Amino acid sequence: MAYVPTWLAMALAAVVGIMCAFAQSPPSGPCLGGAFPDAGNCCPTMINMINFYRDARGCYPTRVANNQVLYADVGGCFPNAQGTYRPAGATCPPGQQCSPTCLPTVVATPQPTRPACPANAQRDPAGCCPRAFGMSLFYRDVRGCYPIATNVGVLYADASGCYPNEAGVYNPAGMACPAGRQCVPACD
Fold first, then answer.
1. How many CB atoms lie within 10 A of CB 61?
2. pLDDT-above-70 percentage for the chain
3. Going by C-beta distance under 8 Å and a sequence separation of 6 or more, which residues neighbour residue 127?
4. Contact at 8 Å (CB) between 31 and 93?
5. DSSP-assigned letters across all residues of 27-62
6. Are 79 and 177 in contact (CB under 8 A)?
7. Which pLDDT belongs to residue 19?
8. Any residues with CB less than 8 A from the CB of 131 and at least 6 apart, and which?
9. Taking a C-beta distance cutoff of 8 angstroms, is the pair 33, 51 a contact?
10. Keywords, A to Z (predicted)?
11. CA–CA separation, 163 and 168 (whole Å)
12. Most buried of 1, 10, 96, 114 (most Cβ within 10 A)?
């Protein structure tokens, strides 16, 4: 058996302990969910529990058929509802043009008199508790909207702030959001 100096074993144990502590600590960025902003100080949008940042034009991606998340093409035109980009040289259809947006960072406001969150979960940077759906907890998205329960599971609003229907189907890109399905920021 090889001899390992005591100082080396202790140093290795300390490094492993530090790595475990960082791996278990939640992200602590100023955006909802703990993400960090981009170079323009804009937060990412969350689609299917994944953060997506703006492209070089300042546009967030959109969700299309089969829950694909796609960015606008080099001309700033989003694909259609089936995920097909326009042919080269064709004009961009109305409602598919990229328009730069910026989701701002969140400033946390302390709420010392609020009761504990469900399952003693931590509040988000804005001081809001997650909502429980079944045995799982879900935090608000970057707009401050909670997800909804559908027939296919718990889903968040799309990049334009529109929730899916009961079957879990999102509106095609460019289509107006029906009444009652628009995301409204809330804080539990």
1. 19
2. 81
3. 108, 109, 110, 111, 114, 187
4. no
5. P--SSGGG----TTS-BPEEETTEEE---TTS---E
6. no
7. 53
8. 118, 137, 138, 146, 147, 188
9. yes
10. Signal
11. 9
12. 96
- Give the tokens for residue 47: 């689609």
Measured CA to CA, the distance from residue 148 to residue 186 in angstroms comes to 12
Instruction: Name the average pLDDT for the chain.
Output: 81
Q: Which structure tokens are listed for 67? A: 């829950």
Residue 134 CB burial class (10 angstroms; 0-12, 13-18, ≥19): exposed
- Indicate the domain borders of the chain: 28-108, 117-187
150: which residues sit within 8 A by CB, 6+ positions away? 164, 165, 166, 167, 168
Q: Token pair for residue 149? A: 């329960």
Q: Give just the sign of the alpha carbon dihedral 8, 13, 16, 21.
A: negative
Per-residue pLDDT reduced to its tens digit, 20-61: 444 444 557 788 777 888 888 898 988 777 889 999 899 999
As a whole number of Å, the end-to-end CA separation of the chain is 58
